[in-house]
User: Fold these one by one.
Assistant:
Number 1:
Amino acid sequence: MPGRRAAPPIDHTLCRRCQVTEPAITVRTEPLCAGCFSKYVPTKIVKRMESFRVRHSDPGNERVLLLPLSFGSCSTALLHVLSQQLKGQAEKTGRTGFKLHVLHVDSSDAMAESSLLGKVQERYPEHTFSSCPLSDVLAVDGVRELFQADSSNSEPLNDDGSSRELTLEKLFASLTSPTSRGDILQILLRKLVVNCAKRESCEAILWGHSTTRLAERTLAETAKGRGSSLPWIVADGELLHGVPFYYPMRDLLSKEIASFTSFLEPPLDDVIATEAVKPAVSTKNTTIDDLMKQYFESVEQEYPSIVANVVKTTAKLRATPLHEVETQCELCDVPLDGQAPERSRLCYGCIRTLPQFAG
Amino acid sequence: MPPHLCQLCNTARAQVLRPKNHARICANCFIATFERETAETITSSNLFQPGERIAIGASGGKDSTVLASVLKTLNERHGWGLDLVLLSIDEGITGYRDHSLDAVKRNSVEYDLPLKIVSYEELYGWSMDQVVAQVGKKGNCTYCGVFRRQALDRGAAMLGVAHVVTGHNADDVAETVLMNLLRGDLPRLSRATSIVTSTPRAGQPKASLDGQPAAVSFTNVKRSKPLMYAYEKEIVLYAHHKKLDYFSTECIYSPEAFRGSARTLIKNLERIRPESILDVVRSGVDMAKLVPDADGNCKGACGSRKATEIEVKHDGEEEEEAGGGGCGSGNGQETGGEMAEMEKKLLQDDRAEEEGTETHISMPVKAVNGQRHDGDEKVGPPAAALVGEANGQGHDRHKHPPMSTATTVPIRTKQEKKAGRRSGRDAPPPRQVLGQCERCGYLSSQAVCKACMLLEGLNKARPRTGIEVGSAGG
Ligand SMILES: [Zn+2]
Ligand SMILES: [Zn+2]
Ligand SMILES: [Zn+2]
Ligand SMILES: [Zn+2]
């Protein structure tokens, strides 16, 4: 190696990377201009997509990855960056490392969301898109039976869409707290996404969780008595649920992703659903998830490395090898051995949320 | 609206709403339930041996007062034959412990339990008043905190008791779980959730198994937390309904930032879902089984599943924050200090890692090559289990030295050599992050524990007796 050149002195009024433009944002104490920041974010994401590169792909056998899209800034940014990556691959090599199947699960305002889906589809027409209502989860093997446990109702299993809607509504109405409703919503959503990935023969699921979101989940799941599920929640490539999960945005903070979407030209804002602003903390309606979200939103401002460190620490936990697992929770799939009352079908976390179905 | 009746006896008026399960019950049923549940915790985890001598760490506060009362009651009710002693620590600050020690003394009379008060002066040769006279007001809190960590173990050893119980409750444990997640400390998370912990040598087989306490060393003391599944609120209720005599030791100083954050989260969680305190404890216990040990093996979940047999060591760390702490002259730590410090350190680590991968080709190699590395190893005392001094600190994110045999002595730079103290050329390199103090044998992440370091400084200025190694036999 030739001798080191003396580095020119850094001009602190300019972007730390290019030293040409004025900084637009500070990323973990480093001032960056909009251009350099717009490169920084995709670099972090693409680095996490290592195992899906072109050279790992088999030309005759295209890999399809499922991207669940919530229209939030994280999953939308992920879709945008991966679309760019695939375009780059096609230009350079004439083929791509993978294809995307974008799935949206409708869980609330169907009208507003269907118009968003159209816009996204227009902007990224190269991918396959599909959407389904959350109540479809009741058609997934075993789910309906799970919630039938307490049913004194001997209604015939009428399995059309509207009856599913109704069953789901009843289920949510029977849950006693906002925390339980949020918890069950997440689990059902995940079940449906996994089921769809299997049906569409997707090789993996790419979640849009930022490191902030993963830190929130770590503490929230801990508080919900689901500590034993943590190694699966934050690890890349784990297949507790039958299809491996990846978190390509795991090295980025929520606030960085939000800035990224607003810096883009044209901005992503009109394909992102604006989050309803929650009224000031009233603990009556606050969920454990909300609490942790608020907490890490504030920690992220001053102590971003601490947020990232929570996730790195959790990732050090060793999951039980799946081949050693004898029984899994019928609702959330976590191994039951030693983490649940004897002969229970559900783990402690699920029993806490669904005491009426624990039989 | 008519008053609720107790859900258990259906006769008395319900006075207590249990946070744990929302049950509305009367005072008598509550007391009976609290005692039954504590007994279940004790028997299901085999905490005590029949006839065992147990020292109750008594601060005069609510937790240890309730613990003493419950243990006394259960011991008589179930004929456990435990030999219970109250053990209090006196830091030697004029006036500071008077009220709380008075409460302990009254309890000693009321429960007919012998009380032993051990002072820092007896344990370390220095009272806090003397320390302040020596080092001034500033910084004396460090001494107090560090000395307190080992005080219960040393005090128990003086009494010839090999088992200390402390009043840590579910709220304390939950708080510690969240705190250690926030600061990324899995080993401490494990320790906090273990109902029993032991000092380094306690796990080794003892010479006499007949319970003769003659040779209890303070490095040979077991600690346990019989109330770790009890809500703080229920402990207060129990003390109230049993009319227990305790001294409120609300700490007026703000806790350090990580603990403060965790405490606020726990309070909010309790408001959202009261059960979540125990859920955090449960999560912590489950996670502790997934924490890899120094060899990278999983402790509980994989391989042998007997998590209960795993030896968990303690370094007295909890004592620092647990009830009754604080030496009265303020922590002197601005809130946020620890978080800012850790943020800085993590950022530096990240930078170093990034730069390391970018520039490592041009790293100077001269210092390593061609250096004599086999003739001048400094041989330390054989018992000293060393910690990674060589790489700066015993932090588990750093590499552990590779396993090596006598023929493959790791090559070290000059600087490392100066700092490194190997236990002997033939000994395998240290593998555990937590080792023992080479002077006193106490669990320590450094070669010499903080207490010994501080004492060295104090004694240099005014030579007195140091810590006696392993000979504190009553
Ligand atoms: Zn720039
Ligand atoms: Zn479950
Ligand atoms: Zn009653
Ligand atoms: Zn020492």
Number 2:
Amino acid sequence: MESTFNRATNFVTRSRVWRSFFRHGMPDNEMDRSLVMTTNIFFHLHPVKVNRRSLRVTYSFGLGIISAILFLTLTVTGVLLMFYYVPATTLAYSTMKDLQTTIPLGQLARNMHRWSAHLMVLAVILHMVRVFYTGAYKPPREFNWLVGVVLLLLTLGASFTGYLLPWDQLSYWAITVGTNIASYAPVLGSTARSILLGGSEVGQNTLIRFYALHVIIIPLGLILLISLHLWRVRKDGGLAGQEIPEERLEIASLKE
Amino acid sequence: MAAEIKDQKTENIFPSAPTKTYQLMELVRGTSPMANKGPDNTVFSFPVVALIEVLLLLGTTLLVFVFSLLRNAPLEDIANPTVTTNPAKAPWYFVGLQELLEHMHPLVAGVLIPSVLVLFLVVIPYLDNDRTGAGRWFTSQRGRRITLLSAIYAVIVMPLLIVLDNTFNLREMLRGVAPELISQIILPGLIITLAAWLPMLILLRWKPTMREVILCLFTVMFVSAIVLTLSGFLFRGPGFKLYLPWAMPGGYNPLSGL
Amino acid sequence: MTVAKTTSDSKVSRRQFIGYAWAVAVIALFAQAAGALYQFVQPIVQAGGFGGKVNAGNVNEFAVDTVSTVREMHGFVSRVEPQGALTMSWTCTHLGCTVPWVESEKQFHCPCHGSLYNTKGEVTGGPAPRPLDLYPSEVVGDELVVDTSQTIQRTKFDQSQITPFPKGA
Ligand code: HEM
Ligand code: FES
């Protein structure tokens, strides 16, 4: 029995097709475990080995990863919503109603998209706060902190533009008030507002502009910058938490 | 020769043996290519990190999934430009700004303060570029104390300012007495700046490091933002007036606007 | 091989000069693209409906000392005196909420941040920075015609803002 199973596995994993996909063997030894990381595009963001200190839950709370996971959830559920949603003032609201009442699991898709969006804003803010309090922005990670600030703004932008799309009273007035704040900025304010709204008040032009920003422009920016952000974490030598506090650097015998 | 005046301690760490062709000469303080490395303390990313990530993925998704089964996303009436909802609130992450708007001119609350906040975030790593203590929560015991004290300060002062301005409203008291530039821009701007810098006056006497100064400023701003957000989100009811969250008039539920 | 050297006092060699010229050209190209994008995203100007001339109604419908809400003009006709009326926008000058006329309070009361305006549109309370904006209007025959294509901002009320009504209206 066992040998049949082994033979079958071997037949698959040694076939030319399999080996054209994966350039490593079973990751049950150090060589192949390293190769998993270096030969796979999704894994290659990780180093082959990581320091135990940087894995402590109380160091990062996994908040950065959780933000990235929520972004993934949002992409999946968002694409599902796009199958039905129409960004027209005459249709947007009724397609939302359809999603909730007639489309199987439409309500679930919408709920998951909405709650993930709130949660992502929260996770990103908490991630920034933990990076700040652990002093992980210090050199050489200054640039990655800046990338993070832009990521925070993009996350807020994605949430804000998405808020208008259901075209209900909540969205309409939140966006009206929100964009009016911008018009108080000297010089650029009212220009920025009318470009964002595509007119002087929230209307069809606004809806389609926010839609374009929400489903393509901002997500593309996020994908680009999240990739840069994660790559930089590696290039800056992994998480700051693995750096050993000064006092432990001193050779034990010198301390006496 | 240095080897001769080697003390006993060095000898203990690395005893010289006649068969060896090398020996420890001296112990010195200083950096070496091995600094910051310490003893090898690493694990393979596969499968450990990969597993952690899969677990986080499952956990987060499950959380969102269960919450989505329990609570539906809100959908109010269709947008109607002729009728404003009462109250009309921004999404929760901007409601702190809306609370600020209640107390001062939109130029200060909506433009200047957010710009200053973002600018502050941008310059943090360039103001504080001392590497020591990177990767340690609050950097030091003193840093932890400063953070805690700043947080307590903001938790007390911000609600106080909100309630104070709500009872003795600067704008209404000075209406017709002083121009808006003073009552709505300069005065509130000064008050909020002062409130943010006050702890600094005490801190400066402790001869703080740059990290400690920034810990204090960031904490005051962050905790203030939380207070403002909670005030705007939970305590503002119809007409954007202050009420207790459980005693809102007209059956308004502050949680319904998520 | 002998190379004939061009004698020149210029500190910039020909290669450098061409290099700079390229750089400038590329920057100019990007600047042009940015300019084009700026043009592209400008709002579309729409004509007709709200945003054009709106007939607010017969002047006799607006009794003295009353405020009428006229949906088509997104605003109010406030007959502050027998001689005429003010035609005002209903957009709050604070952050743009729609301000309702509250008959029981005899004033305009914005639900967003509680701005209060009297019948002349002047701010009597709340954060609004200026009185309600005006629409230009005139009486044609017996009809009050309001031009909603533009609003007039003002810092205070004065008599010239009133659109005169014909005698006997
Ligand atoms: C879309 C939002 C974001 C995503 C998906 C993200 C993702 C991540 C991930 C996966 C890590 C690895 C460590 C961890 O899990 O904590 C990380 C580290 C880091 N992040 Fe973010 N991040 C985001 C936003 C931000 C923001 C807003 C900031 C700060 C303004 C920031 C600054 C940093 C820095 C400096 C590090 C290195 C931390 C260290 O060395 O300990 N990131 N980020
Ligand atoms: S929008 Fe009317 S008071 Fe703020």
